[in-house]
């Protein structure tokens, strides 16, 4: 490749035997090579191996323009950007060309005139594939001039040319994307009359600007993204345009916790100091992912709007930060994240879900607590028996000792910023709690996490009463809670059910 980059004139390019090919042929040829060599074509994209990515590869092999259709936070734009890696590393262009003119097949008047004047001495330069990606967010104020182009009166005046001369044209984004990938995000937001301007370039492969006779034979690979919710809220993709986009590929959210965790841990911005000083047990990582799954199924959340992977990413970052803040305030050098730290995760949830009417009535804070509670309930059952359903033939209640301890009027008061020693002391003071944690067959280093999970889990199953008082989680027997009903405590029992 270094030898090729030394070619600086049209004559030398011809002598090298270079042959031009379209963007779609580039993508197809390079994809075939990657498939044959079993290379990782879309690194960092998880959960789409058997669904979305094979469809994308088939579309590229078919030389199709692509519409990626899916809810927010489903890696649509990331997939589009990764397609750049399937382009040739460098391509030759006429030096100084606005439209990335191919020296062997120029399309602009300027490039044709330059080649006619200089012939084989026409200077060329090499364009890297990273410079062949153009992305535009569709908004209602996007004009035809933005995408296609228009007459530039200043250029006409400076060059002393009449408006009928094509050299007075100021080219828009699409002509400038000649021999490139052009991505339009949120396509339905583009006004219908603007969408019409894409017809010819998608079907016939050319474009006309204003009333000029010239028709530019553009070579562009179009990638569109759209959210199905936009079809009714803000606009729609007009049928003739949708008909011209050859492949429509539907994306989706992670289908299991393991995939969700991979995405979250890859995308979260956690500093090396945080990773070294703060341990987040796997059960808490699962709990974060379960919050997103709970939100997607919740009666309070608008399912059509979707719940982005950004929720779990932001929640994961907040969990680290909540534990870090607690650690520093207590003068500790290291710490382990706790379920009580999820109080600091609430702000990462409230801004990431669109609520239906019932959710608006409850309020974002209450809905966030409800989602955390639903997630706790599901994770709890992965390690402990259902307290409301004894196994067949089981006579002894596994939670009997613990329930008797609370029935005696004992209370567990877990402040959100308890130092490690005091936190351990409180948990170990609950009769039967440590034995339950040990029976979960968890690593001894994470025993306290599972002991805490028992308390939160039993409150979700209505065995215990849980309330939040300023900066404390308070666990009681229900009878004790009823006797203290005249307190100002916020009883969270029932919110999580």
Overview of this protein structure:
There is one protein chain. A five-stranded parallel sheet has the order 4-7-8-1-9. A four-stranded antiparallel sheet has the order 12-14-13-15. α14 (257-267) crosses α17, α16 (282-297) packs across α17 and α23 (433-439) packs across α24. It has helices at residues 2-5, 10-15, 23-36, 52-61, 76-82, 109-118, 144-147, 153-159, 173-176, 192-196, 199-203, 230-233, 239-244, 257-267, 272-277, 282-297, 310-329, 346-350, 357-362, 364-383, 400-407, 420-428, 433-439, 447-460, 478-483, and strands spanning 66-69, 90-94, 124-128, 133-137, 149-151, 169-171, 180-185, 220-226, 247-250, 278-279, 335-336, 412-415, 465-469, 472-476, 490-491. Helix content is 43%, strand content 12%. Residues 485-490 and 492-497 have low confidence and may be disordered. It has two domains: 2-250, P-loop containing nucleotide triphosphate hydrolases (Rossmann fold, 3-Layer(aba) Sandwich); 257-388 and 397-491, no CATH class. It has 25 helices and 15 strands. β13 (465-469) and β14 form a beta hairpin. It is α/β, with parallel strands linked by helices.
Task: Summarize the model shown.
With 497 residues, the chain is of the alpha/beta class.
Summarize the topology.
Elements: H1 2-5, H2 10-15, H3 23-36, H4 52-61, E1 66-69, H5 76-82, E2 90-94, H6 109-118, E3 124-128, E4 133-137, H7 144-147, E5 149-151, H8 153-159, E6 169-171, H9 173-176, E7 180-185, H10 192-196, H11 199-203, E8 220-226, H12 230-233, H13 239-244, E9 247-250, H14 257-267, H15 272-277, E10 278-279, H16 282-297, H17 310-329, E11 335-336, H18 346-350, H19 357-362, H20 364-383, H21 400-407, E12 412-415, H22 420-428, H23 433-439, H24 447-460, E13 465-469, E14 472-476, H25 478-483, E15 490-491
Parallel strand pairs: 1-8, 1-9, 4-7, 7-8, 10-11
Antiparallel strand pairs: 2-3, 5-6, 12-14, 13-14, 13-15
Helix pairs in contact: 14-16, 14-17, 16-17, 16-20, 20-24, 23-24
